[in-house]
Each structure stands twice: as structure tokens, then as C-alpha cells.
Amino acid sequence: MQFEVFTLLPEVFPPYLESSILQRARQRGLIDVRLHNIRDWARDKHHTTDDMPYGGGGGMVMKPEPVFDAVESILGPESGVPVILLTPQGRVFSQAVARELAAHERIALLCGRYEGVDERIRMRLVTDEISIGDYVLTGGELPALILIDAVTRLLPGALGDPTGADDDSHASGLLEYPHYTRPPEFRGDAVPDILLSGDHARIEKWRREQSLLRTLERRPDLLEKADLSEKDRKFIESQKSKVNPEF
Ligand code: ADE
Known about the structure:
Blueprint: E1 2-7, H1 14-17, H2 20-27, E2 32-37, E3 50-51, E4 61-62, H3 64-75, E5 83-92, H4 95-102, E6 106-111, E7 116-117, H5 119-124, E8 128-131, H6 141-152, E9 185-186, E10 189-190, H7 193-196, H8 200-218, H9 220-223, H10 230-243
Parallel strand pairs: 1-2, 1-6, 4-7, 5-6, 5-8
Antiparallel strand pairs: 3-4, 9-10
The chain binds adenine.
């Protein structure tokens, strides 16, 4: 999968892209991340990419010409490649959106800076707008890295384990069960006996129940959309009064 990243700060990407799973995914040819400095398409001798907002007010706005030139020269005309603007005004990123994007061969990510981008960029160049949450960052670079990370780990072969991302929190609409590794006891807290039992059917059942319980305790809103069996629903009902007597 190819990511075309358009940014005024290309230098912030390599340290993360050259680490761990993303590095391995790049070496295996699963992803290719191309960084494009929008400033390279600025037209004046000062390489200006921002300007004052019409109508006044604080902050600067990203000019349309360098952004259009950058994106159009890299993607070519009518490429059909999604051009995603990272902005707090976009649809909220989620595991479902990550899955949707992972189905594309190539996507373009446009990182806004300053107060925002000229509205004509949104109107005529951008095909999708994504926010990573209801808070405001200084630019779209960290959101772009987050998106690349979440999408890459969904690509077959990106994670060492062949079951990959199947058990992740949010993969099935539930939070994940608790994990333990050695030692069997640490500072007085023991690993639950069941995990040491070797009884895979019971371990599976325990994990499912822990996953349901965690979701009920921390994110009960997720249970409404989760894929639940009759058994799951009975278990949740049996736990509701313990988790919160008001349920
Ligand atoms: N740029 C600034 N804040 C952002 C956010 N929350 N999500 C995506 N892009 C952003």
C-alpha cells in the first residue's frame, strides 16, 4: 500500500517510520510512505505556503496553489486516489475507518498547519476529511502517522503473529482481555490460575468473558454495536449489577 504524504514538516516522519513494525512493513514492501514537502511547490522566491485570512482575524491559512500543485503533480489527473485531509473537522477515525482505508492500494494524506487550509482545497482537492479525536493539534502530521500506523498493522503480514490484529481491542467491537507474561507472581499479584491450566477451551471462555466485562466497565457504549452471541448477552446481564448497581 502506498501512502503519499503532503506536509510542511516531512522531517517529523522518518524517526517513527523507521521503527519497529512500520520499518519491517516497509522493508517487506507491504507499505511505501512517500513524503512530499509542500514548500517545494511554492511559487515565490520566499517559498511562501501561508497567507493572512481574508476578513481578518488571527492565524495564517495554507495557500491553495502549492497544495494543488503538489497533490496534482504527484497523483496525476483524475487518479481516483483518495485525498484525505487531517483536520479536527473530519469524521472521527476508528478501527472501522482504518479497515476501510486498508482496502486501498494508494491514499494521499494532506497535513494541515497554521489555522487551517484555504476552503478551496477542501472543496476541490480533498475527497475525505479525518479527525483523530475531539481535540486540536498544531498540525496533521501526528494524525497522519497515527492513521498510517493503524492501517499498516491491518495489512496481512504486517504483524509477526498470523492471527494478527484479530484479537485487538476494537477489532470485534469489544475491548481486549487482560494479558499476562512471566513471572507467574509479581509483587504479590499472581497470574490467574486459568491461564496456567493449559485448558484452551476454558482460557478462550475466560478471555471472552474478560473482554465483555472490560467493555461493560469501561466502554458500555461499545456493547450496543458489538457482535454478541446469546451466551455473551446472558453473561453481560449477570454482571451488570456487579459493575454498576444502577444498570
Ligand atoms: N489537526 C489538528 N488537530 C487534528 C485532529 N484532532 N485530527 C486530525 N487532524 C488534526
